[in-house]
Amino acid sequence: MSKRYDAVVVGAGPNGLAAAITLQREGLSVLLLEAKATVGGGMRTQELTLPGFRHDVCSAIHPMGAASPFLRSLPLEQHGLKYVQPTVLAAHPFDSGDDAAALLRSLDETAKGFGADEGAYKKLFAPLVRHWPQIERDVLGPLVSLPRHPFAMAGFGWKALQSGKQIAARFKTKEARGLWAGIVAHSMIPLSAQTSAAIALVLSTAGHIGGWPIPIGGSQSIANALAFYFESLGGEIQLNSPVSSLSDLPDARTVLLDVTPRQLLAICGDELSSFYRWQLKDYKYGMGVFKIDWALDSPIPFRSEACRKAGTVHLGNTFEEVAHSESQVWKGQHPDKPFVLVAQQSLFDESRAPAGKHTGWAYCHVPNGSTRDMTEAIEAQVERFAPGFRDTILAKHTFNTEEMQHYNPNYIGGDINGGVVNLAQLFNRPVLRFSPYRTSAKGVYLCSASTPPGGGVHGMSGFYAARTALKDVFGIEVHL
After folding, report:
1. How far is it, in rounded angstroms, from Cα 137 to Cα 450?
2. Strand partners, 363
3. Residue 398: how many CB atoms within 10 A of its CB?
4. Residue 112 — φ and ψ, nearest 5°?
5. Where are the domains of the chain?
6. Which of the two ends of the chain, N or C, has the fewest CB atoms closer than 10 A to its terminal CB?
7. What number does CATH give the domain 5-49+59-81+215-284+417-474?
8. Could you read off the pLDDT of 25-63 as tens digits, one per residue?
């Protein structure tokens, strides 16, 4: 630690790795510090239940990885990363029988499945899919300059500023409304809240362009490929190296922190201006998650064929039921029938479980900091749409919000999005400043999901923070 570096990056999650790579690609000497024994942050994969069953501890399905201009710019396949696309990207079953709405790679085929809403779905998404290559860098970045294609961006922005409920009013069928509800619920704010449509628009558009891929071997494969690439460029990684203050760091010209505002205050609060500290203390964290991983004797026996072919399944029945469930959580309550997100990686990646066996991955939203055990509620929801599911369970592992935060300190109160993604914090993360990545301390930058574009495995927050540091400290301009 006595060596002097050009840059030190704290935290080897997707954004810390992205920041380190961006800096190292410019020929700087970069040290990446990680508190845990492995890199990855939200991209780790572990045997949580039984030997041979490999579970994604947090992130599982990666539409944002496929959509990320930064990740696409890297030769990660040369470092072992391979993806597989599920047959059905996401399915949404209903109580009415074995039918389910399905998000498919094809926009036309998805729309066709909505019957009377075929035209409405195409009208909503066809312009976004058509213009996505022109607007992706602006959508997945900070609002610090005029967009490259202002009219196309305005078309996205007008829709993104609406609530999920407002967009749902375009649809008449339960299929279109239900599928939309499940995707909107990824925002972790009420479906009636302004901007709750934004994340759903991005996830759906990303699915029609690049799919919702699953990394072979687990999400750890993404982290490992990023780390291998960083080291191949000459970067250094030190594991088991927690950082509690700037004094823990070696001498460097700049420091980038893959942390949320709460840790930023703890690490370097004395170096920050009083106004900036006040802004950070006002930062809002959102809903938490309660997560279950299952070792299964056989695939989840969903009634719906679409669900049996899906990488992701959203459980919540109608738009109204999902909206009510998410509203309850927002108000600090625990719904009896929570909205549940399920991932079925082992259907498409046989390396996840012993021959003939399977894994299951699921979570529901809960109030921030909740320690209530939601196992029964989650399993009841799965059983509701997959009778006999409980009979397939060999073992299980659970995380409440406290345990999730212990696993990753950035998940404050179990908030896996790094802060509420509401109107106030959608783009102005973590505070209202010209550059969200600069702190008030000279040479110290924030590169986490608490900066634009927010949560997800895309690395864009890390890239933009590193780009800012390169320009400020080293006079180097970089572009994607």
Report:
1. 18
2. 291, 341
3. 16
4. -60, -35
5. 5-49+59-81+215-284+417-474
6. N
7. 3.50.50.60
8. 999 999 999 999 999 999 999 999 999 999 999 999 999
